[in-house]
């Protein structure tokens, strides 16, 4: 999906239109802070009209400007929300194009087929999709294998393989079969499909407030009521001091004190957070999951594919006495020529790198790997070559030549195992000639990443089916905090439950059906889009790129979302100090001139002081829109370091900035002659 | 301030620090129900009381049940006192022959003592019989203090418990608090006060001829026993109208020092107990340091402006501008300022000088202290649960900035907790500002005022702040013994007490149910300088900003008027 810059004109225009539409009280009432501002705007507008009718030009000029800026305050907040929504809507438009009505070939129970529109398909129906056709709805492949173009959803043009059974059986409606033919059992009813949910999600239509957002809203509403009390009671207090306070000034004070900055930007921050996930091709099933991502304490990572590059590779040959490394390489390569597994190919590649060209002479008899012999190799004439685990090769040597394994080979096997590698012994004509070292290759840069994660206070745990020895070595190399070796699916589930019982939040990524229970149990379960339907149902986020390491980015996005919320709340509350110093002396300028000592900004006149504070209050919202949409800069660090920085920038900055801002605005409006 | 003042101040803070840990450990043991050195003596008594009251000490109450029992207990106590006051002229122990008390005064007084406020619209020596003082009022000095401590203890339990339904047993907390904490401390304390020359008798008032030959009636009574709990339980209701400025209520410099210390002692120990119970002593001390910094700041400001006095004095030919109006020469500027700050940091309300006569900024400090809802050590119990509501706000607002949903000591702070905290904040502001607005508009309110304009407003504001904050001190010159003042103040006291307590018990109940998340590198730190700074920031931003317009009109306006040399009649 395309990354759109913040100030994309194509997005701004509709956002401005939406900002006006959102002035409807029915929309505003959902946001108590801005609703109060809107009522205030309406009240000052009435007082403006009143001033006009009674011919009080000076007062009308003032109340008119105040009411104008109050309306702007509401509009700016609406605009921020509309901008955030607009970005999602643009993405939803792209997705909708994939949700076209298609024709499906329905397969009846008796084997006959008939054509039906895709909208008539129900859960449990079975359809046949051939090359060139669009898959009509979400489902599971129950027969056949095909390459599928999923670019409509993932934006990734390389086709993916979908086949029955196993962990790559799920298909998504709207994607296209490029080759072959598959039989698909439909798993969703119309309107509930993955694509539908995805569209709703990015559009923000089903966006529900997250728990923390609700709590923050309660805080903001509470503060609004408290400041409402402070302002409303000021009227009788002022009357006691023989001061008349105009409605426009009271409303101005109120609007300046209530947390409009965060109140106006809160929903934009939430929408933008979801949007950042979508831009990384991750789809969260709920906003709650994004918040939970920020809280993660433990990351469970599968070794294969996440920490290591999927497959083991040959990295070294150990010769037995009387042989050279090259000789071992050649024999090993010949034994592996017919072995098409990635491991086998890596042996040939390594040998080629050493300058050894191995060729299979015609008439060679290939001995494939079987579970029984646990060896593979070739017989060329009377030469027989084998490679395999130590025990199997030992047996073969014993039976063919009554030989034994030389001690240096045994030693090499030990060394390799200790380093976390897998030793394969190579033997020729009943004699062990050397050992191949197969190793898991840890992904480059993964160690640094884990260090960053550790700095955030998160524990990383590697899950692997390997034995203890191998797991220890890889864990040390990758720099994870802990590992679970010889892990079975139920072990994973138990591990997650144990951590949760300790009060920790666990995230994991997975794709297979056997991952489903663990995914469902974890607080954040990231499912690969290539995963099975069961896994996709169990998790609460889906990665369309099927990159398990993305879970790390998701945690960062979650944290960034929460930090942005907290920082702007702090900023908003800290702003109040300066506004008091602007407005309070202004209110009592006539009756209690002594209070002028509080006018430390040296604002020109009472009217310009109030107006400047209101203008600052409105403009700060629009100034902070990019920050709300992009999120506060986040560096993986310990909590106290992050806190220190943000308190300094948004807390202390929040106290100081408005003093400067209001003063500047005061100078400008006096120069222009607005008051 | 003189160097002597600084030495005394340092001594005061040092002594407070010294008693905090041992008393905190002792109280933690008492409320855990574990053995203390007094158990052999008191455990049988405790068991006997449970049997008489029919209390099952092993019952663990949910917050709702705890609250209902607390409310019923307080309501009965309030009704009992009302009855005694209304009937005192028929009851014994009335040697001075005190007459009938009006319904509104009796209601105000009953509410006042039930809520640990001890606002007195009357002067004790000319209104109350000995029976009224001892039975009707003093018993509240114990129970209201114990109720406050119980709520704090229940809240600490709620925070420290893991996935629990209950927050303790109200009756057990209440009875243990009396038996193991308040009574033993008060007995020792009262004996000490008597040693300092405080009176303790049931004699009739004495008529004497003074050196100038004037006739004077000197009031007598069981003073020491009442003063002990008045200070320890942060009640503050004086036996005499002059309160701790009266020689019988505060005979020596040492008694003055110890009285101030005793106001803070239980509040301070509770903070330590919090740290101990949540197994995070550093957090407990961080809260303690926050309180201490705010306390020291308040004292320095008040003393500074009292020493500074009114510049007009020097123009009138006074040798020093220092403000001695309304102060006992025995205590002087510093000990008066210190006492005023202590008594309003805590919700005590005892006074050894007249706050009304302080300079505007000197009087601003006590007023602000109460407006912050008395969380600087605070009223016994109420100080801690008030502070905890600020801590929850701090954790909630600033906690987000570390990139996690907010949590306090491993417990998630969610909508429910914030709702309760905000509810109590709104009620607090509503009670102070709403009543003050009413009082400053209603002729019935204005009738009680002796000063016009700003200072008159300060008096009104101070009265409702004091009542809502359950402090009980007053700016003199407000005749509050009228139906309007007695009734509105009684309601302010009621709101300020129970509408703060019950939400915090609800918070306790909600927190008790939660899982505890173990802290680490990634969690919000609740100790250290940054936390202390943040907590102070929230207290000042959220607490003080609410009242800034009102303060600006009262003491702040007065201050600048004074500097400009304006005079008022």
Model description:
The complex is a heterodimer of chains A (675) and B (569). Chain A is α+β, with helices and mostly antiparallel strands. Chain A has 25 helices and 22 strands. In chain A, strand 13 (365-367) and strand 14 form a beta hairpin. Helices cover 53% and strands 17% of the residues of chain A. In chain A, the strands form 4 sheets. In chain A, strands 10-22-21-20-11-18-19 form a 7-stranded mixed β-sheet, with helices on both faces. The two termini of chain A are 49 Å apart. Chain B starts with a helix and ends in a 6-residue tail after the last helix. Chain B has 19 helices and 4 strands. In chain B, helix 9 packs antiparallel against helix 10 (281-308) and helix 10 (281-308) packs across helix 12. Chain B has helices at 3-32, 39-53, 63-87, 103-114, 124-127, 130-160, 170-195, 223-232, 253-277, 281-308, 311-315, 332-345, 360-371, 382-399, 415-441, 443-446, 453-468, 483-512, 528-563, and strands spanning 206-209, 215-218, 407-408, 411-412. Chain B is 65% helix and 2% strand. The interface between A and B is large, with 75 and 69 residues.
Provide a concise account of the structure shown.
The complex is a heterodimer of chains A (675) and B (569). Chain A has 675 residues and is an alpha+beta fold.
Distance between the termini of chain B: 30 Å
Given the helix and strand composition of chain B, which structural class is it?
Answer: mainly alpha
Record the strand order, biggest sheet of chain B: 1-2
Q: Would you report the number of β strands of chain A?
A: 22
How would you state the average pLDDT of chain B, rounded? 90
- The quaternary structure here is heterodimer
Adjacency order of strands in the biggest sheet of chain A? 10-22-21-20-11-18-19
Identify low-pLDDT runs of chain A. none
Main pleated-sheet profile of chain A: 7 strands, mixed
Q: Class by helix and strand content of chain A?
A: alpha+beta
> How confident is the prediction overall: mean pLDDT of chain A?
86
Assign an overall shape of chain A: elongated
Helicity of chain B, in percent? Answer: 55-70%
Sheet-strand content of chain B, in percent, reads under 5%
Largest interface: A-B, 75 and 69 residues
Helical amount of chain A: 40-55%
User: What is Rg of chain A?
Assistant: 34 Å
For the largest beta-sheet of chain B, the strand count, sense and barrel status come to:
2 strands, antiparallel
**Terminal residue distance of chain A:** 49 Å
The amount of beta strand of chain A, in percent, is: 15-25%
